[in-house]
Design a protein that fits this description.
mainly alpha; two-stranded antiparallel sheet
């Protein structure tokens, strides 16, 4: 079951934060087709937000065909975003956890880590797109 967390410093709308978290959970296999999303009332209560915000997020996911509502029952995952790389993610996640512990020991804050990852990711992807196919 997914547990939503809101970043109050984020400039991303609250409902989009929920949408993004569901998509991330689908991408890494934490949610799979048939899984039920938390009930709107429970999410609204735990995050102290308006239930309409949760409904908006679930509606957005429904429009994208990722979830479907069953009246009186709840909202269920209909398809996954996990790709063929999913079986390899566990080992990579373990490596990432070890790297994060090293970064923390080196004195990096969470914001430092995000900045390092995002700048490296952008530079790496830019380098990869500039390479000519052999």
């Amino acid at each position: 079951m997914i547990e939503f967390v809101l970043d109050s410093r984020s400039k991303v709308n609250t409902y989009m934060q929920l949408v993004q978290q569901v998509k991330q959970a689908l991408r890494v296999g934490l949610l799979a087709p048939g899984d039920q999303l938390p009930k709107v009332r429970d999410v609204a209560q735990s995050l102290a937000i308006n239930p309409n915000t949760v409904l908006k997020a679930y509606r957005e996911l429904e429009i994208e065909g990722l979830v479907g509502g069953r009246p009186g029952v709840g909202t269920f995952v209909q398809r996954t975003l996990a790709g063929a790389s999913l079986p390899n993610q566990a080992e990579l996640r373990d490596d990432l956890v070890a790297w994060l512990h090293r970064a923390q020991a080196a004195g990096l804050t969470a914001e430092d880590v995000v900045a390092l990852v995002e700048t490296t990711l952008r530079a790496t992807l830019t380098d990869d797109t500039q390479k000519e196919p052999a």
